[in-house]
Amino acid sequence: MYPAEFAYLRPPDLDGLYTALAQHGDGAKLIAGGQSLLPMMKLRLATPDVVVDIGGARELRGQWRTEQGVRIGAATTYRELQRSPRTLALLPGLAGALEVIADQQVRARGTVGGALAHADPTADLPAILLALDASVDLHSRQAERRLALSDFITGVFATDLRDDEVLTAVEASEPPEGSGGAYTKFEQPASHFALCGVAAVLTVEAGTVRRARVAMTGVTAMPSRLSNVERALTGCRADPAALSESATVASEGIEPLGDLHAPPEYRRHLLEVATRDAVRTAAARAGVRWSA
Amino acid sequence: MDPAANGTDVTVDLKVNGRHETRTVPARTLLVHFVRDRLGLTGTHVGCDTTQCGACTVEVDGVAVKSCTMLAAQAGGCEITTIEGVAPGDGDGLDPVQQAFWDEHGLQCGFCTPGMVMAIRQLLRDTPVPTNDEIRHGISGNLCRCTGYQNIVAAARSAARTSTGTRRSSRADPSATSTAPAGEVS
Ligand SMILES: Cc1cc2nc3c(=O)[nH]c(=O)nc-3n(C[C@H](O)[C@H](O)[C@H](O)COP(=O)(O)OP(=O)(O)OC[C@H]3O[C@@H](n4cnc5c(N)ncnc54)[C@H](O)[C@@H]3O)c2cc1C
Ligand code: FES
Ligand code: FES
């Protein structure tokens, strides 16, 4: 399968990307790792006139410690993140999520910015980044803005990104001391995509959950926080029974999607199981000892 | 290097198995077709063409990727290693991973083998002494329709044994070193 014909540009810097986008408008498409875009182009689901490679723009690579947490350049690959122990140490739950994304070859190409801009309703990275209170930086020649990740993703493969904008970086927040994170995923074995994935970041103090961030993917039109579960957890004793109990409200008010691989009722069930596992693992990593 | 865009053609300049190659191709040319059809290196296979099977795995700057899901133009300026380039010297010998496939009968029809070898080379660079679970996780992007995987896992184990400490890494994995300065939190 070949993509339809297109012209290829690789500007040497971020400014060149802005120019290319401004010049070619909605006929242009950015390519990062190509792990989502190229399969779509082969199927002719995407037929851009101009493909603009972000690979030349060094400004989009790198990870920086910020006051809030870590700022990660959009062109950073999953593999590079996996090999960045300092970032992983600051962002609980991230390492476990990266490990279960796709396979080693896809992780070597797929980027953080591509994953977020593509907004696949079953993507793993958005779930853990929602649990880490992430925001994204969007830049164009004219303007720059910052959006909470939860406002950036607006639907199935839909975001608030404009035609002339580049997602330049994502900033994830370091949770307070005493936090632990986990990601639990049930995957479709052939594609590796999530039937259901739940990320949890819990802060535990003196045996009580002080702060909870829980987010899901794969279940509805887009990854989102599970505020019911977060409310149930906040102030709750961090013992196995109470933590498990919080998972029973996970699917309240949620209409799971169904497909060939998992009908809605099955996804609803997986959501509860994955939530229970993720919050218990996160609590254990926050230092809770069950026997204590 | 910056491939010169000329309508829908691009000039791609890269190194394959140590040799400089320059070709002008349609921009939509995938790396796997560049390698097979332009350079005649047909050891890299096309199995699924949908990023699932791993038969097309090659190394780009020392890192295993699926060449059916990368534009040749994106590989401009990079060093590519294909299955034809993994054996030491003038191609008489075998890479330790190839030898292990021979020893453990890790192939039947052989269609998946080039990609499996490239994937396991990557796995062993990252995890020199992998557990069976780590081996299976490492090759989860590669499909084999014949062997049932048992002997492929055995081959990976055997290659890990013979190559621990002794295996060369002719082309360094840049993400192992250069991510640190460019990529690490400072
Ligand atoms: C076999 C296979 C298995 C997979 N399994 C999983 C899985 O288990 N879990 C999972 O989460 N994902 C999975 N994926 C998807 C993969 O994680 C994403 O495709 C990848 O991360 C997208 O990043 P990319 O750099 O490849 O983006 P690209 O494919 O290059 O781009 C994707 C989209 O984002 C846009 N874009 C890219 N970068 C930017 C930017 N900086 N600013 C603005 N727009 C941008 C592009 O224009 C395009 O629309 C799988 C993919 C494959 C092929
Ligand atoms: S041909 Fe590339 S993954 Fe199957
Ligand atoms: S040996 Fe035939 S596909 Fe693996």
TrEMBL record, chain A:
Q: What domain of life is recorded for the organism?
A: Bacteria
* Pfam families assigned: CO_deh_flav_C, FAD_binding_5
SUPFAM superfamilies per UniProt: CO dehydrogenase flavoprotein C-terminal domain-like, FAD-binding/transporter-associated domain-like
UniProt entry keywords in alphabetical sequence: FAD, Flavoprotein, Oxidoreductase
Care to name a GO molecular-function term for this sequence? oxidoreductase activity
- Would I find Acetylation among this entry's keywords? no
Q: Where does the FAD-binding PCMH-type domain lie?
A: 1-177
* InterPro entries assigned to the protein according to its UniProt record, in alphabetical order: CO_DH_flav_C, CO_DH_flav_C_dom_sf, Diverse_Substr_Oxidored, FAD-bd_PCMH, FAD-bd_PCMH-like_sf, FAD-bd_PCMH_sub1, FAD-bd_PCMH_sub2, Mopterin_DH_FAD-bd
* Residue stretches in coiled coil: none
User: Which protein are we looking at?
Assistant: Xanthine dehydrogenase family protein subunit M
Which species does the entry assign this protein to? Phytoactinopolyspora halophila
Automatic annotation (TrEMBL), chain B:
> Where does the record place the region Disordered?
160-186
Tell me a Gene Ontology molecular-function term this record carries.
metal ion binding
Keyword list, A-Z? 2Fe-2S, Iron, Iron-sulfur, Metal-binding, Oxidoreductase
List residues traversing the bilayer: none
Ranges where the 2Fe-2S ferredoxin-type domain occurs = 10-86
Q: Which InterPro entries does this one have?
A: 2Fe-2S-bd, 2Fe-2S-bd_dom_sf, 2Fe-2S_ferredoxin-like_sf, 2Fe-2S_ferredoxin-type, Beta-grasp_dom_sf, Diverse_Oxidoreductases
Its pathway, per UniProt, is: Alkaloid degradation; nicotine degradation
Protein name as catalogued: (2Fe-2S)-binding protein
Q: Which organism is it from?
A: Phytoactinopolyspora halophila
